[in-house]
Amino acid sequence: MHIPAYAHATIRAALPSVPTSRQVGGLDCCMCDESFGADLAPIPLGPTPMSGLFACRPCLTRLIARARRTRDVAMTQDAERARAESAAWMPVRERHLARLDSVRQAAEAVTGLATDGDIEALRVAWLLVSLESAYTWVPDTPNPPASVDHEDSELQDETLRLQLAMITTRGAVAERLSYHLINEAQPDKPEMCEELECPDACSGRHDSSHIDCGPDTVYEDLADHGIAMEHPESEPLSPRRADLPGRTEAEEKHTPLPEIEEGAPVVLARFGINADDTDVLVSAAAVGLVADAWREGLVDLIHAGDDGPSDGEIFAQSVDLYRRARAALVAAQNDGPEALLAFVAVASDVDLPWAGGSRFVLREVCRPLPEFIQHVDDRVWFTAEVMREQGWRAGLLHRAVSAVFKAPAHFGMPGWPGAVATAMERYAVLDRLGAPEALRDLAVVEAALLEAPDRLGADALDWISAQALLA
Questions:
Q1: Among 265, 301, 375, 461, which is least packed by CB within 10 angstroms?
Q2: CB crowding 203-234: b at 16 or more within 10 Å, else e
């Protein structure tokens, strides 16, 4: 009798947890316990045709029919979900494409004005500053849901076109301003210092990193030159600019965590973390950043609700965010604290499906999402502020201390390999009959837990959590 693949799980779930000796011996059906005979032939279920458990044709026919109905319902639901996800994704995609196209057109317009000798050099410089602000406000490329074709290259193509346009504009402006600076001496203290409320010690020289005009000023500036453009929709999350000139002397001397360099290494050492090992310190800081900025607060609340994510979904998403937090912290060493905004963009995205194959989306739960976005932004901003005031290492120490108290054995911490080893010892002696398919091979499971737990999938991680293997 042929047993289709889609029925394997249904049949496996119907098998007895403790079969009788007659069932193991092939004398009785393991499903209905009827004795085999001339009218009821045994059908082997494995592991070999001569050993294991046996079932009768009526029982297997009934289970296959149930599995077929379940499969058909799931296929219908998946099709409906795919249509809903596609309907929700297309407006997101179109808004992002419109944003890319609008900023690209602005860049091309600025390029034209920069090469036109009729516009004074100072106006060209301000056009570049406002354009750079608009470019900074362009959000990261959104990720389509799992059911949508990921081969759509238009988003990547438009992003590349914008980047090339920005390179061209910067070159045109640089050439224009280079000749202007050669032919005309720059004043010692330009009028912009008064507008920016610069301190008395300001040199009078500024660049675009000191000034943020917001996402839309470039379109207003272009309108002054007769170029009318439609403004794109504003994004809900604004970038932080804590290093603007004009802070008071007291603010300049302020240090958020004055004793972090002395106290944190001692605390970390008690938990087995060498603060002088930069790689370990960055990993611990990434775990702490995820715990402080993302895990605390709203995620804890929705986890306890009926419509909230499962343990496995939270586990998978926290692993994915850990990698993003670690990459952002590493980038911040050379690119400055602003590199942390890459983590904020993903961690606070309420429309992004979670990792591990989960379809959970934060926006689908009725909770105060603006407060959640602000919470993530504030926590990351504080880390950026510590880095600005006290250095990159101080920011790492602060979040690493959070990690040893809130998530000492999480993925990315020094204690994680030991936790995995203990979990595999428990798993080896556990009844794995109902475990997801991804957890069948012990070696594969152990390697995935050590390297990328979210690779196992949210369902598998949920089963692991239910068995308290990593507790």
A1: 301
A2: eeebebebbbbebbbbbebbeebeeebeebee
H-assigned helices in 291-336: 300-304, 311-335
The neighbouring-strand residues paired with 52 are 47
Q: 70 CB contacts (<8 Å, ≥6 apart)? A: 10
- What does the block give as tokens for 362? 């934060």
Query: Cis before residue 47, ω within 30 degrees of 0?
Result: yes
- Give the end-to-end CA distance of the chain in Å, rounded to a whole number: 43
CA distances from residue 270 to 157, 275, 393, 411, 416 in whole angstroms, order as listed: 50, 11, 19, 19, 17
As a three-state string, the secondary structure of 215-261 is CCHHHHHHHHCCCCCCCCCCCCCCCCCCCCCCCCHHHHHCCCCCCHH
User: How far is residue 106 from each of residues 94, 96, 153, 220, 370, measured CA to CA in Å?
Assistant: 18, 15, 23, 11, 30
Task: Write the CB contacts of 187 (distance below 8 Å, at least 6 apart in sequence).
Answer: 204
Distance CA 383, CA 387 (A): 6
For 16, list phi and psi in degrees, rounded to 5.
Answer: -70, 140
Contact 322, 287 (CB under 8 A): yes
pLDDT tens digits along 177-187: 876 775 554 44
Closest CA to 81 of 313, 311, 342, 359: 359
Q: What is the pLDDT of residues 254-299, one digit of tens each?
A: 566 777 888 899 889 988 999 999 999 999 999 999 999 998 877 8
Q: State which H helix or E strand residue 12 sits in.
A: helix 8-14
Q: How far apart are CA 443 and CA 449, in angstroms?
A: 10
Instruction: Look at the pTM and tell me if it is higher than 0.85.
Output: no
